[in-house]
Amino acid sequence: MKLSVGLKVANSLSLTPQLQQAIRLLQLSSLELEQEIQLQLDSNPLLEKIEEEYGEAKKEETDPTLQDQMQHDTIPDDLPVDTDWDEVYTHQSTALATPEYEEREDNRSSADSLEEHLLWQINLLHLSQIEQIVAHCIVNALDERGYLDCELEEILASAQHVLRQADVDEELELDEVAVVLKYIQRLDPLGVASRNLVECLSVQLEQFSPQAALNHQAELKHQATLLLQNADLLLTNDLNKLMRKTQLDLDQLKQAMALLKSFDPAPGAKFQAQEQDYQTPDVILQKKNQRWQVFLNPDVLPKLRVNSFYAGMIKRADQSDDNQYLKNQMLEAKNFIKSIDERHKTLLKVATCIVEHQRDFFEIGAEGMKPLVLRDVADEVELHESTVSRVTTNKYILTPNGLFELKYFFSSHVGTATGGECSSTAIRAMIKKLIAAENQKKPLSDNAIAKLLQDEGIDVARRTVAKYRESLNIPSSSDRKVLL
């Protein structure tokens, strides 16, 4: 084997630090971007955030004598200073127009959790110390619906363990746990700590107090009790057997079921929904003069610039460590501002392209969704698919129809009779609309829905309809059937 030295010309792609930073910023959400900006502000003295008070009026209020003195003490007159404004970048908004944006105050108030709400009521009861320990064990075992998610024997063992740790020589009985459970089930919300749906409805029905003068309500309560005694037939929707077994006619059955439906099947759910996660939109869509306009949310637009005071301290011919440090920080600050600006330009470009494709969605709703994939947008905006994927992940657009993630507008498709394509999102909306308008006594089967869609020119199989229906959390036709 002979060794030789030669030259070879080849093309290679390398990611510069600036490009790596731009790619990383592109995939950050608005919250993550805010954290990244704050981190850069804390670490780079030449990068500053433009506050509202940095206006012309503020500049006029500045003492010129003090400012001149600071500059004179810091920069000698005999040294050339690089203070050209082309070296200082001030971020300019890439929005199409300044929106008429109404700022709203966050007036959400913190609410007690289900556990706190129940323990507050338990402290008002005249319970012994041991009964309070049992009550705490029961409350700690409740799930998000407010149901008791364990057996009474487990509550007994847990309470007995707490007593041993407290050096209390007391043996609990299962009946004592059951008594405390009944106390809790009659607290607010009524029916909490029930072990199943039937027990939850039974507790609420027991506390239902009809007026003495209205015998009809007392009879209605009795009829609802008969239904709960035959809960297996009620839950399977076998109404014919239910009427034969309870000796109730159709009207009586309808009224008794209406009473049961008025109760809360999940007493603890409302406490879980008190605090919700709110997403801040990155892009806002509005219709003005019969035209859809897309612009960036001004609340998430970072207003950054290079600090002119520190920029003025940089000396062109000075090779000292301090001067080199300022130059490096200047370069990093300018690259960071450019990366932020490119991020917003790319986001606005992709969002505008999506709006152009999905114009019918914003006009008529989900039924107007068009089939769209990443490649379609990538080819139109002349970006790579991976870039479009990054810019649409965890980015939200606020529209007149609601708040959507940009990923929502990409969907698969099925063929139509005319050779075209229909979005799966539009098909789901059509299925939901057909089921909402069906006769509840004769609900549409998956085959019937498939035939109706085929009449509309959409070639879809029964199993596809079943898959889309299940994704909408819609039960089958047999479970949707209502005889009343």
From TrEMBL:
GO terms in the biological process aspect are:
DNA-templated transcription initiation
Q: Cite the GO molecular-function annotations of the record.
A: DNA binding; DNA-binding transcription activator activity; nucleotidyltransferase activity; sigma factor activity
Query: Might you report a single GO cellular component term?
Result: DNA-directed RNA polymerase complex
Q: Domain RNA polymerase sigma factor 54 DNA-binding: where?
A: 324-481
Transmembrane region positions?
Answer: none
Q: Which Gene3D superfamilies match?
A: Homeodomain-like, RNA polymerase sigma-54 factor, core-binding domain
User: Is this entry keyworded Transcription?
Assistant: yes
Carries keyword Transcription?
Answer: yes
Which family does the record claim for this protein?
Answer: Belongs to the sigma-54 factor family.
Name recorded for this polypeptide: RNA polymerase sigma-54 factor
> Which lineage is the organism of this entry classified under, starting from the top rank?
Bacteria, Pseudomonadati, Pseudomonadota, Gammaproteobacteria, Moraxellales
